[in-house]
Amino acid sequence: KVSMPAVAAPRKGRALLIPHGGGILHKDPSQQTLAKWLKEFPKTLPKFSSIVIISAHWEERVPTVSSGANPSMLYDYSGFPKEAYELKYPAPGNPALASKISKLLTEAGISNGQDANRGFDHGVFLPLMLMYPLADVPVVQLSLSSSLDADLHIRIGKAIAPLLNEDILILGSGFTFHNMRYFYTAQTERKGPNEAFEAWLKDTCTSNKLSEAERTELLVNWAKAPGARFCHPREEHLLPLHVCYGAGGSAGVQVFDDLVMAKTSGYLW
């Protein structure tokens, strides 16, 4: 009698890093390439029962999970037309999933918290309004740690990786370029460091020649990459990528690469 080797079941979930856009994303002429992609790309993905989103716009002392059943809106921006403060995204929360995430983090030795009152910030509602406009997929938010420790955020991703065995989308919502001073200046001023960092990031995230130990070391030491601190004077918009990579645990695929005020990219695991 020959025993057949066990074959791992295909993963139901996905980890996806996206640029989240800003303002009234769906109407801003400078963001239409991104808006169109956010509308179309989810059609290539499986159907998900819940979304776990890591927004660049929520930091806490310890990683914190939104545990409310019906999150409110958090208009965490200023200077936009009235319409920007009337946007609605009435997706439900998922308190049971929030508790599961908290348990996974605890089991991984990562201190964490829950927040039943956290609303959807613009890193959540702007992209999701385009990606899942029916707002019928429950959404749980997971904050960054205000330490901005790259290794910790990879470990957070590893801790919640079991969610990918279910039909859950782990969605990192950030920007691979986020230097506000240079968003609105001539492209020639940012082109060199912007393109250098994007090339490094693509190679680091997608190369099959790297071991996962090597890839992890590069991402932990991301600030040594060419153009790194020009592109990210502060790294809160990059760290959702670290969580997604930690969950995915292997080379990803670049799924977005275009100008959104600057050259920026998205990755799928």
Summarize the SSE layout with pairings.
Blueprint lengths: L13 E6 L12 H9 L9 E6 L3 E2 L3 E3 L28 H13 L5 E3 L6 H10 L7 E3 L2 E2 L4 H11 L7 E7 L5 H4 L3 H20 L5 H9 L7 H4 L7 H10 L4 E8 L1 E7 L1
Parallel strand pairs: 1-8, 2-6, 2-8, 3-7, 4-5
Antiparallel strand pairs: 1-10, 9-10
Helix pairs in contact: 1-3, 4-9
Features of the shown structure:
269 residues; alpha/beta; two-stranded parallel ribbon; disordered N terminus
Summed up, what is this model?
With 269 residues, the chain is α/β, with parallel strands linked by helices. Helices cover 33% and strands 17% of the residues.
Describe what you observe in this structure.
By secondary structure, the chain is of the alpha/beta class. Helix content is 33%, strand content 17%. The chain contains nine helices and ten strands. The protein has helices at 32-40, 95-107, 122-131, 150-160, 180-183, 187-206, 212-220, 228-231, 239-248, and strands spanning 14-19, 50-55, 59-60, 64-66, 113-115, 139-141, 144-145, 168-174, 253-260, 262-268. The protein has a six-stranded mixed beta sheet, with helices on both faces. A two-stranded parallel sheet has the order 3-7. The chain has a two-stranded parallel ribbon with strand order 4-5. Strand 9 and strand 10 form a beta hairpin. Helix 1 (32-40) packs across helix 3 (122-131). It is globular. The termini are far apart.
Order of helices and strands: EHEEEHEHEEHEHHHHHEE
Count of individual helical segments: 9
State the secondary-structure class: alpha/beta
Spatially, the strands of the biggest sheet line up as: 6-2-8-1-10-9
Percent helix among the residues? 25-40%
- Based on CA inertia axes, which overall geometry fits? globular
* Proportion of residues in extended strands: 15-25%
